[in-house]
Amino acid sequence: MRDQVRATPDSRHAAGLIGPGARFSVLEIADPQSTLAVATFQAFIDRFIEGGGATHVDYVHGDGVLERLAMNDGSVGIHLAAVSKSDLLRMVVREGPCPARRFDG
């Protein structure tokens, strides 16, 4: 799953979906509106929460932590490819700040 997400061409956005349980899938957006994958998938997460599909979101760094948490009952994880600091700076200059991150308790 991680290799497939990393190998996605720049013209597309991909995210690994982990869970529920030990399930691994890849979601791919063919014509994203943003140059940042996090912005593409944040819109999906926001709508999912607004529709009652989740009660809270935690943002974690590190594949091991993400996979461990996502495999808990009632949880899922979304794995995004890492962005280099230089690429991130270029994206922020082009599009503005990254989407707001929520930290709910």
Structure description:
The chain is of the alpha+beta class and 105 residues long. It has four helices and three strands. It has helices at 2-6, 37-50, 63-70, 85-95; strands at 13-18, 24-29, 77-79. It is globular, with a radius of gyration of 14 Å.
Provide the descriptors you would attach to this structure in a database record.
three-stranded antiparallel sheet; 105 residues; 3 strands; 36% helix; alpha+beta; 4 helices
How is this fold's topology laid out?
Layout: H1 2-6, E1 13-18, E2 24-29, H2 37-50, H3 63-70, E3 77-79, H4 85-95
Antiparallel strand pairs: 1-2, 1-3
- CA-based gyration radius: 14 Å
- Measured by DSSP, the beta-strand proportion falls in 5-15%
Continuous helix count: 4
Share in helix: 25-40%
Alpha-carbon distance between the two ends: 29 Å
Shape: globular
Helices and strands, in order, run as: HEEHHEH
Mean pLDDT: 81
Summarize the entry for a quick read.
It is built from four helices and three strands.
